[in-house]
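<discrete_fold_record>
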Amino acid sequence: MDRLQSLFAPVEAFFTRMEARLMPSDELMEILGRIDGWVWGNFLAFILVGTGIFIAWKFRFVQLRRLGHALALVRGKYDDPRDAGDISHFQALTTALSATIGTGNIAGVATAIAAGGPGAVFWMWVTGLLGSGLKFTSCTLGMKYREFDEAGNAAGGPMYYLEHGLGNRWLGSLVKLAVFIGSFFLGRWLTGDLLDAPPPVRILATAGIMALVNLAFWRLSKLWLSSTSQLGARLSPTLERLRFQKWLAWTFALFAAIASFGIGNMIQANSMALPLEESLHIPRSVSGIVFAVLAGMVIIGGIKRIGKVTSKLTPIMSVIYVVGALVILIKNAGMVPEVFRLIFHHAFNPVAAAGGFAGSTVAFAIQHGVARGVFSNESGLGSAPIAHAAAKTKEPVREGLVAMVGPFIDTLLICTMTALVILMSGLWSQVDPSTGAQYDSTILTKVAFEQLLPGMGGAVVSVAIVLFTFSTIIGWSYYGDRSVDYIFGPRGIKVYRWIYILLIPLGAAMKVKLMWTIADITNGLMAFPNLVALIFLSPVVGKMLKDYFSRVQKPLR
């Protein structure tokens, strides 16, 4: 290993110099940091959760009522190989999961607990449950409005249902969205005197004001439309020429393509190379080159090869991590009830400062739990419909039901395993002796596993990080692939794939903070055009859902 390090020492030095040269100014990073904080702040979390509540109410918690049928679909009982598409239901699910199961399940959960306390886990569960409904809606729409190229390859996702589903209704949709956002800020302003009230009371008061404002707008808009039907007919040709829905779709595709290079590629490659360097002393440039070759062999083959690989890799890596956590839970079974008591108690009660933990309010627990739930399963961001649109089926609702299983696995299973081990260890409130600061991020998870499973726990986390990040790189490549195809057409796909592969060793060897921050911003911005479509195309999904279950669904195997 020493010979390998000395051999690649000049390469490592080159990347170190390049990293220093690419370092942006502090002023630019401060500006981008503020934008990033706003994009991923409370407002995005609020509208994502708010949309999740709206979808759950509209479809009567379809994610719970139809979960049994969804699991039967995942097992392939309704698969018909004659249906149009590229991959099976199971492969579509594992491809989407490969992109969402990443370092966030390990580092992100630890950060949420370290900042928000045990109660953050409860709000992460709530967000995961609501996110399942968002996945159902978006992936049903992605399947309904998907298209096929001349070679028979499927392409779908928010860019397609924004363009073809929203149609000329975009102006009315934007007005309604503006009223919805305005009602949020009005509610926050009117409830400003309730700062001493418990957070659930403030949230309910804000939601009540929003409901009243939007109900009043709905009634007034119906009266307005009935009296101005002729004006609407005259405006229709003008709205058609503007084609704003096309620009909205194009914007989403651009955000997704940029995010794929950072969130889906360079950040993951760096997270993958670090544990290999720390544990096995493998130079990061070597890890990057090896994984670029391995990922390239999969990515160049397109969605069919990606589906085949993720259908094996995703279950294997999930089982390795979950089994490692289960061994710890079984060995310490007597502590499990106390851990759940902590979670439920501090979901509604503040946590006092102790050790390295600075203390947390209920509002802080909600903020960090919701943020972790949103970031973990990517519900509402619009990435998963791109993968699920490639599934072989003629029933859009079926793929929506398959997709809604994702958050149950990602957030309610894998994130929960991480959280239980961390809380069981007690390290979440302790100080790391090596740094003098509170345990946080990947270090907290790794040390917690190692403490409760000596000799094996740290290795389980390291292996999981490598597999999780590698699978994310593969999954996100397809999201960027389809986004580039939408913007530039088939001629841009090969160029994109090779750029994506070449960025893997660069991301592994150095931290390009500017690229990371821009990608994080665009990843969050994906949610805004997507939520416009989810809210205003929900009646379309409702009709399809009612039609699907009005017919007898017979298994084919």
Q: What stands out?
A: The chain has a mean pLDDT of 84. Residues 323 and 417 are 9 Å apart (CA to CA).
